[in-house]
Structures are given as C-alpha cells and as structure tokens.
Specification:
9 helices; Arc Repressor Mutant, subunit A
C-alpha cells in the first residue's frame, strides 16, 4: 500500500511567551499602564478590576478575560473594595486568527479555566522567580524543569485561544466526544459545581466528609474520586484551600485582623489558622501580608 502523509495545518501558533503571571492584588492596587508590541490577555480569577484599553473603560468580574492587541495602551486598577486574583499572560502570535480577539471582553468556561490553571502550574516548574511579581520582565528557565514543560505551556495556550474562538464563533460546530462520555463528563461537572457551592455556603464552618456526602447525595469514594480528578486534591483538602484563599483575599482587603479572619472562617484558634495558612501557602499570615504590601509599596515608589 502506498501511504501518503497529510501535513497538519496550524491556524494559530504561539511563537514566544514574554510573561506568565498569577497576581493576588490588594483592594487598592493600581498599575499605571503600558503598551508593547505583543499580545496580552488578563483574566479575572476572583474579585473585580477596572481596565482601560485605548481609553475604553471596562469593569471586569470573575471569569471575564480581556485581550490587548500589540501597541494597545492598557492599565488595570482594583475597585477599592474587592481584592482581585488575576491571570496575565503576554505572547507573540502573528496568526491572522488573532484579529478575532481585538477589542473584546469574553467570558471563560470551565475548560478554559482548567487550561489556564495548567499553564500556571507548568510555569511554576519551567521558570524561576515569583509569578506574582508584576515587575518581572524576563522569564528565566529553571535549572531542573519538568520534562517538556515549555512545550505544554505552548500547547495549552494555543488550545485556550482556539477554544475561545470556537466557543464564540456561532457557525463553528465543536468536536464532541462519544455521547456517553460527554454526558458523564457534564454530569460530573454539574456535581462538582454543586459541591463547590455547598462548600462556599459553609465556608465559615468545619464540615466533614459525611456532611458533604449526605447533603449532596454522593458516596464517599465517589466524592474523593471526583475531587481528585477535578482538582487534584481530596474534598476536605480542597475545602481547606478554599478557606485559605478567602483568608488571603480578606488580608488583602485590610478590613479585618488575623483573629477576626480566623473566627469568620471557622478556625478553632488563631494558632490553628496560622498553621493551616503556612502549610498551604508556605508563609504565615503576617509574612503573606508583608509580601503583598511590599509589592504595593514597590509600585508606589515606581509611580
């Protein structure tokens, strides 16, 4: 038989990456703005921010993503009330398909959120330095990176952009997996979201595996399997991380002291709260507050 190969076309290709950031900003953070000759997008993971892009004002909430084309001036400011978490990635892409993103604010769905999380995770191993440093202008390769980490970043980033275009182009029919697998995947996603909402409602309490299972009509082993596949953590560990994420936001909003935060989130004592905080973040609450404040102070000095 005479086999003939097919060259696989690439409609959208990422050539270079300039920055990959995951920021945890104070509620009064302000970045004065910049323009550069490459693409950048900002996605709100939590909270709210205000963005100017070529004098157009945008108020962005959780799940919103804004794209800045090359040489478009843009700035970002917290709204003074809610401390935001942001994903910011800048890159070179000369594909004509990128014109789709010009002057657009879009909403990501769960698959795109997972891709951004995978990019951040790979970047932590591929490059040295802190991903929350807004003044880092160069990605330095790590001495012992994961195998093919940079390639995965490129693949995930390209997939993120392609999925966004497919989602918003009405005339494009997305590829679908077999019906049974698709239905199960959707059902798992609904159940995971339902349990997340349950955890958010009870974020100021200490809930057990049994309570989660009973309130959401799910077995213990199924619950753990669901959370391991969706988040990489067990259900209780995931709940603990939700508490600490909220604690970090409350610290950045500067309305409460550490004791008040520990009480509000259902920790039995300030000491237990501090131990949990350090176990998950690698810093004590005081060290975290000082770290975030240092970034804000650095910004004030630059301005």
């Amino acid at each position: 038989m005479g086999y003939k190969s097919v060259h696989l076309n690439e409609v959208l290709t990422i050539d270079e990456v300039f920055s990959i950031h995951y920021f945890e900003y104070m509620s009064d953070f302000s970045f004065p703005g910049e323009s550069h000759d490459f693409w950048e997008f900002l996605c709100v993971d939590k909270g709210e921010v205000n963005v100017f892009a070529d004098e157009l004002f945008h108020s962005l909430k959780k799940g919103d993503v804004i794209f800045h084309k090359p040489n478009e001036f843009h700035d970002v400011k917290s709204n003074g009330m809610i401390a935001p978490n942001l994903v910011v990635i800048s890159f070179t892409c000369n594909s004509p398909a990128m014109s789709f993103f010009e002057k657009k604010v879009l909403q990501i769905s769960e698959p795109e959120r997972v891709l951004l999380a995978q990019i951040i995770q790979e970047a932590r191993h591929a490059f040295t330095g802190r991903l929350d440093d807004p003044y880092q202008e160069e990605l330095i390769r790590a001495d012992s990176p994961r195998f093919a980490g940079e390639q995965l970043i490129k693949i995930y980033l390209q997939q993120f952009l392609i999925q966004m275009i497919r989602h918003y182009m009405v005339h494009t029919t997305p590829l679908t997996p077999p019906l049974v697998k698709s239905v199960k995947h959707k059902a798992d996603g609904v159940l995971f979201s339902q349990i997340q909402e349950f955890m958010e409602v009870h974020i100021n309490e200490n809930i057990s595996i049994e309570q989660i299972c009973r309130s959401n009509s799910i077995g213990r082993s199924q619950l753990q399997k669901l959370f391991r596949s969706r988040s990489g953590y067990g259900a209780i560990e995931y709940f603990s991380r939700m508490k600490i994420d909220l604690a970090k936001q409350m610290i950045r909003e500067r309305h409460y002291n550490f004791t008040q935060i520990a009480d509000a989130l259902g920790f039995s004592s300030i000491h237990y709260f501090s131990r949990q905080f350090k176990q998950i973040t690698g810093m004590t609450p005081s060290e975290y507050a000082s770290s975030i404040k240092a970034l804000s102070d650095q910004q004030d000095q630059i301005n």
